[in-house]
Design a protein that fits this description.
It is built from nine helices and seven strands. With 233 residues, the chain is of the alpha/beta class. It has one domain: TIM Barrel (Alpha-Beta Barrel). α1 links the parallel β2 and β3. The structure holds flavin mononucleotide.
Length: 233
């Protein structure tokens, strides 16, 4: 299995030079080429789909970065010495569109011949900005409690699964890259190079040892949800 690098699902999520995209039909030729290169070497091709939230860069997106909580995101970016343009807050409407953007990227990946997608929910990007109590200070449907901070991720997973069903591709893999770096975020000592990523089924015991209530709850939820998906396949 070969998981390709972070691929943008929307214009407001561009943050790398030459950032690969899965945003519209126009992106199909390049997606097809990437899938073909991997598959021609005998590996399963997995497209990692991604949105950086506050870490989007205006020089690529041509717009101000967006995050679940603007004020907190600006503080964190300044702490990290990564503040470029003031971050604005996602509206409820844009959050709902974003869920569709992930669904659309999943559909494009299926059309392009990938064997699966992976949601990039590690390395402080958008998913983490939603589930992190340090990043997410919202008080609407998308924040304010453990359950609500998970809402975004769970809705995206559901939307991707619906696409898989619509395309009649029960074999299509839907992965989720978790992170256990939350401890660092809570202490506001963020350092992406010290993060560790856990495969839910195998490393849950290690997460338990960290005694991070928030993270444990989140991972348990996902384990439950993803095991359900696996048993459905
Ligand atoms: C230049 C660079 C690019 C990266 N690109 C991705 C990526 O596209 N997708 C991803 O999941 N992680 C990406 N990462 C994160 C790494 O996969 C990994 O989480 C990080 O380097 C920490 O792990 P390590 O301690 O084993 O290096 C990238 C890291 C670096 C340094």
């Amino acid at each position: 299995m070969y998981i390709l690098g972070a691929t943008a699902v929307s214009q407001d999520g561009l943050c790398f030079p030459g950032h690969p995209r899965a945003m519209s039909e126009k992106d199909l030729p390049s997606l097809e080429e990437r899938a073909k290169i991997v598959k021609s070497q005998g590996a399963l091709a997995i497209n990692q789909i991604h949105h950086p939230g506050a870490f989007a860069l205006k020089q690529y997106s041509r717009m101000d970065p967006l995050a679940p909580s603007a004020e907190r995101a600006n503080e964190i970016l300044k702490q990290l010495n990564q503040f470029n343009n003031p971050v604005k807050e996602f509206t409820d409407e844009r959050i709902k569109e974003l869920i569709n953007d992930f669904a659309k990227a999943t559909e494009l990946s299926i059309k392009a011949g990938f064997d699966g997608i992976e949601l990039h929910a590690a390395n402080k990007y958008l998913f983490q900005q939603f589930y992190s109590p340090s990043f997410n200070k919202r008080t609407d449907d998308w924040g304010g409690s453990d359950e609500k901070r998970m809402n975004f991720a769970l809705k995206v997973v559901d939307a991707c699964c619906e696409i898989r069903e619509k395309c009649k591709r029960p074999d299509f893999i839907i992965g989720y890259r978790l992170t256990a770096e939350e401890e660092l975020l809570l202490k506001s000592q963020f350092n992406i190079y010290t993060c560790h990523n856990y495969i839910i089924s195998e490393k849950l015991e290690e997460v338990k040892e960290l005694e991070l209530k928030e993270l444990k709850l989140y991972m348990m939820k996902f384990k439950e949800k993803l095991l359900l998906l696996v048993s459905e396949v």
